[in-house]
Every structure is written in structure tokens, then in C-alpha cells.
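Chain A, query sequence.
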Amino acid sequence: MSPSDLEIRPDEKGPRNLAVILFLSSIIVAGMGWQDWQLHNDGLSDEQIETFLATPNSQPGEPTTVEQYRAFEADVRDNNGYLLRGVSLMLASVCLFVGAPCFTGCSATGPVCVPSVPWSALWAAWSAA
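Chain A, predicted structure.
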């Protein structure tokens, strides 16, 4: 092993890989948001609820019935829980989707699409006002 093997070199593929991960994450998060939007509008069928409750009902304790889950689902829907979570996830998906291309052009100073903010000029303008 030579000393040149241990040199610190710039990471050229890391930002691009991170951009791909962010893009794929935006698709997954958008799917989760879409599912919550659909839950707010339609809800689950009885077969889907029975499939969903199979795992918790296999645990020790009192099993949850379809009617109990329907009451819970109605309460969440009345309080717009699914809608709030769906919109939040869709907004997060948009942020991930917009942020992903910023990493494709990363340089040593950071992402290309984020402009350098002249903080001293902003501070001077704010303090003068």
C-alpha cells in the first residue's frame, strides 16, 4: 500500500448517486402521499381491512374488528388526518424532486443551483431599514 492510496480525493460520483437516491425517494414518497389521498377519499374495503388486521390480530391481546377499524377510519377522516398527511407527503415529494437535480452539478463549493447569498449586503439593507 502506497501513500497515494490514502490521499484525500474529491468525491466525483457521490453527489450524482445522492441525486439518484433523492429522485427515487421522491417517487416513493409521492406514492405514499397518493395512497393517503385515496384513503381520505375512498377508504379501505372490508377485504383490505381484514388483510391489514391479520398481523395485529395474530398478536396476544384483544383482536380488532372491522367495525372498530371503520370507526377509527371515520374519526381520522372527519379530522382530515389522511388529507393532511397526504398533502404533506406530496409537498415533501416535490421538495425531493426539486432538490435532486441540485446534486448533479455539485462542485467543491456545493450545489450549483443554490445561489450564493450575499449575507453582508442583506444584513446592511435590513439594519438600515
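The chain is about 65% helix and 0% strand. The radius of gyration is 24 Å.
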